[in-house]
Amino acid sequence: MTGRKTLGILGKKLGMTQIFEEDGTCVPVTIVQAGPCKVLQVKMATAEEHPDGHTTSTKNAGKKGGKTERVRGADGYYAVQLGYDPKPVRVCNKAELGHAKKAGLDTGVRMITEFRLEEKPEQKPGDDVTVSILKDWQHCDVTGTTKGRGWTGTIKRWNFQRQRASHGNSINHRRAGGIGRQYSTSHGVPKGKKMAGHYGVERVTVQRLKIVKVDEERNLVYIHGAVPGHNNAYVTLHQTVKNERFADAKK
Amino acid sequence: MNILRQIELEHMKPTIPDFGVGDTVDVHYLIKEGDKERVQIFSGTVIALQGGGVRRTATVRRIVAGEGVERTFPLHSPRVADIKVKSRGVIRRAKLYYLRDREGKATRLKPNLGKLQQPRSGKGSGLEPKAASNDAASQD
């Protein structure tokens, strides 16, 4: 669980381009379509706080370690579950449709994410969360899944150095080099040694990216710099956890 | 239309003078001197055009005091105030990097007199959707 306890928004990375400021400065921007998201579910710490008719999590009540006695219907924490990007009914299963129906949707969504909150959420299932929530933000953190790079050598994956191209070197140009020692008290390959392997398709958060522009009409955010993932990848935008003061000082 | 393309059109200049690789142009570039802004003219041969849409750039080469100078101008930057086409050249390459290895008379290009009136912009040149970008610019 991350330390953040604020509501963010879900979106789709559309791609990168550049825009010019009035003084001619060229700003690299990623265009993200953020929302509109639907609140699918609201989680409450105690059962009394729940809106009428809520029955989720009754099955798991009291399950955690069997020690805490939970009230029926309580989630034990505050959170808002958002859904983004509706998909056709034919690809939804009945469970998805039933869940979405509680929020007043006719069809399921492609992306569902829960945002933990410090205090009791004001939102109700069926509410819309639009790009306007980040109007006052200076910066944001963007979470996404990086591009897949397949099986990758140590140079690309761990920034190892390449070996010599000539001076007697043969075949060992892009190899990792030594990975341990034999005749020593600490012999063997150290645990966690960086080697070649699968790289990419990781969940990554880029912190404190500047928000250049918010286009409420088209649900777009212009974010300074790059964002993890390929074009049309799903991303999550949070309020930044980094110090805003530091951000301004750097500017 | 693709949203990304639409955004680029909004940030593009409505019109850009029609020129191509091999043409000799005057680029009017706004430079800052203290608080004042003035126009500096850089004239030379266009040796490369790169990028599409708002990212389009032109590389212009000229000889200053016996030394070759190349500058790459982002065509849609507000700093590029104007581009004037002085003459057109006949070319057989998309990039004229070979001019870097030449000096004096060898850098001359054959003047293109016949095609002077013909528009150079084709598909993908980033110059073609002038009507569409006019509309987008008026919204801003």
State Rg of chain A.
24 Å
Poorly predicted residue ranges of chain B: 122-140
What number is the mean pLDDT of chain A? 84
Assign a percent range to the helix content of chain B. Answer: 10-25%
Shape of chain A: globular
* Strand order, largest beta sheet of chain A: 1-2-11-10-7-12
What does the average pLDDT of chain B come to? 80
- Fraction in beta strands of chain B: 35-45%
> Quaternary state, please?
heterodimer
Number of strands of chain B: 5
Helix percentage of chain A: under 10%
Number of strands of chain A: 12
Major beta-sheet overview of chain B: 5 strands, antiparallel
Shape label of chain B? globular
Please tally the helical runs of chain A, counting DSSP H or I stretches of 4 or more residues. Answer: 3
Number of helices of chain B: 2
Structural class designation of chain B: mainly beta
Give the low-confidence spans of chain A: 66-71
Distance between the termini of chain A: 31 Å
β-sheet strand percentage of chain A: 25-35%
- Work out the radius of gyration of chain B: 16 Å
Question: Describe it for me?
Answer:
The complex is a heterodimer of chains A (251) and B (140). Chain A is mainly beta and 251 residues long. Chain A contains 3 helices and 12 strands; from the N terminus they run ββββαββββαββββα. The model of chain A is unreliable at 66-71 (pLDDT under 50). Chain A has helices at 94-101, 154-158, 244-250; strands at residues 9-20, 26-34, 37-43, 78-86, 109-117, 128-129, 139-145, 150-152, 197-199, 203-215, 220-224, 234-239. Chain A is globular. Chain A has a 6-stranded antiparallel barrel. A 4-stranded antiparallel sheet of chain A has the order 5-4-3-6, with helices on one face. Chain A has a two-stranded antiparallel sheet with strand order 8-9. Chain A folds into 2 domains: 1-36 and 131-159 and 195-251, Translation factors (Elongation Factor Tu (Ef-tu), domain 3, Beta Barrel), CATH 2.40.30.10; 37-49 and 74-129, 2-Layer Sandwich (Double Stranded RNA Binding Domain), CATH 3.30.160.810. Chain B has 140 residues and is mainly β. Chain B is 14% helix and 35% strand. Chain B is built from 2 helices and 5 strands, in the order H-E-E-E-E-E-H. Chain B has helices at residues 3-11, 130-139; strands at 24-33, 36-50, 57-64, 67-74, 80-87. Chain B has a 5-stranded antiparallel sheet, with no helix packed on it. In chain B, helix 1 (3-11) packs across helix 2. Chains A and B meet through strand 1 and strand 2 of A and helix 1 of B.
